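Good morning C.,

I know you're traveling, so I'll keep this short. The sequence:
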Amino acid sequence: MYSDTASELRSIRRTLIVLGILLLFVIGSINKGGSEDSEENEDYSTITTNLENNLVPLGNGYFGLYSDFEETDSEHGMRIYYYDEKENKLVLKKEEDLDTVEISE
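The tokens, ready to paste straight into the viewer:
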């Protein structure tokens, strides 16, 4: 009777050791995967910060976005957008080259 109990306890101990080792491998792989997600979040936050810095609210659903125009080789431009709440759409209204815009006083 004693040998049956001892052998059963040994097999339970081996099983727990194997499960513990597998658990360590699984936790290690999850931690490595989590670091990639945080790098993606950093890229997203950088893009969002740059977008917020270039965004100009114009009122009544309109806003401007500073950008570089590749077509005209202009260094300073603004795209003016309108957000339609009813249709939940963003519409590009016009593009302005800020180097050629005259300021009215």
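Safe travels,
E.
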